[in-house]
Amino acid sequence: MRTVAKIPLIAISIGDPAGIGPEIALKACADARVRSRCTPVLVAHAGVLGRVAKRLKLALSAAVEHVAVAGFRASAVEPGRMQASCGAAAAAFVHAGITGCLEGRFAALVTCPINKAALHAAGVPFPGHTELLAARCGVTGEAMMMYHRRLAVVLATCHQSLGSVPMSLTSTRIVEVGRLFAEALARLRRRPLRLALCGLNPHAGEGGLFGDEDELVVRPALARLRALGLDVAGPLPSDTAFTPGNRARYDGHICLYHDQGLIPFKALAFDEGVNVTLGLPMVRTSVDHGTAFDIAWKGVADHRSLVSAILLAVRLAAQRRAGTPA
Fold it and tell me: What does the pLDDT average to over 275-294?
């Protein structure tokens, strides 16, 4: 007798209520690909979902875990405008989703976009989802991976100023991120991997002419990654790391700062890219885009990235149940 796999419960936090999160969440939950693979649960303020569904004539086709937030009124949300109350609500939705995952009620958390200025205005002490998740889960060494079936990048540093990157970048951090990345990609690609390590400076330092970080920090990390048995090339200059030939040659790129990885990734895989947080005791995926205040609540937001994030979360949750944590 064949055993039928249990359809997992996937939590979807709707992000900033004034952005496109509520719209794409409603659209994704009605998508046949999502409905066939999981039972989605929207972690949200029910009043916001009701307003958006009514305005855009969208069906509310998923269960809702209502999150009450002190001082937040759904009727007061102004779509497309940064509001501290919406930042507080977005953080509350994420916290509720994390709690559900850690308690075992949800198999994974998928997050819609938040607005970092709204978080700051609300007094939330984290620059983004990744840092909030790590703090709630009590972990350090987490990493942001951006994944698409044809392209993948991981970031050694993330939400910080460009000027602070060289001083904060260490060989140990590059090795830690590279190891997490290789382990995650091996499970997703299911083949031997070849990775690329990007350099920090123009021309990867040109032998020290354009800075010594590539010689003092990046190359030692490369040697340590290879000593772990990983097939890693580099340091590759950023301006050629993502040429068509190099994208075909490498399964993934280890990038040293935010825009080094996210500019090429979003240019090439924006519509279906997925943000995955590595190193957590739970599965978390997200869309690869922001709140898009300019088109909020207008019915034109593209929900493909969210669908991709949900389907990848289902896949990662199944791997975790099988004993291969993401």
Answer: 95
pLDDT score, position 1: 31
Q: Name the residue with tokens 């308690």.
A: 103
C-alpha neighbours within 13 Å on the C-beta side of residue 29: 28
Domain parsing of the chain, residue ranges: 1-142+279-326, 144-269
- The mean-pLDDT minimum among 5-9, 10-14, 28-32, 298-302 falls in 5-9
Place of tokens 């009605």: 30
Domain 144-269 CATH class label? alpha beta
Extract the tokens encoding 138.
């009590």
Interhelix angle 46-56/21-29, rounded to 10 degrees, is 80
Q: Residue 86 is encoded by which pair of tokens?
A: 């919406």
Measured from the Cβ of residue 174, the count of other Cβ atoms closer than 10 Å reads 25
Residue 148 contacts residue 272 (beta carbons within 8 Å): yes
The two domains 1-142+279-326 and 144-269 share their CATH topology (first three levels equal): yes
What class, spelled out in words, does domain 1-142+279-326 have in CATH?
alpha beta
- 3-state SS class at 106: coil
- The β-bridge partners of 42 are 12, 64
Q: Which residue type is seen at 173? A: R
Judge whether residue 262 has pLDDT over 50: yes
